[in-house]
Amino acid sequence: MACSNIVSALTLVLFVAVSCNGIAFEGHRRYSPDGNGLDFVYHTHEDMTTFLRTITARYPNLTALYSIGKSVQNRDLWVLVVSSSPYEHMIGKPDVKYIGGIHGNEPVGKELLLHLIEYLVSSYDTDQYIRWLLDNTRIHILPSLNPDGYAIAKEGVCDGVNGRANSKGFDLNRNFPDYFKQNPKKPQPETIAIKEWIQKIQFVLSGSLHGGALVASYPYDNTPNSIFQSYPSTASLTPDDDVFKHLSSVYADNHSKMSRGVSCKQSSPVFKNGITNGAKWYPLTGGMQDYNYIWFGCMEVTLEISCCKFPPAHELAKYWEDNHLSLIKFLAEVHRGVQGFVTDTNGYPVEKALLKVKGRDVGFQTTRYGEFWRILLPGTYKLEVFADGYLPKEVDFVVVEQHPTQLNITITPGQRNDAQYRPSEQKPHYRPPLAPVPDRDEGILSSLSNGFNSFVSNVFG
Question: Cα–Cα distance between 46 and 34 in angstroms, integer?
Answer without folding.
Answer: 22
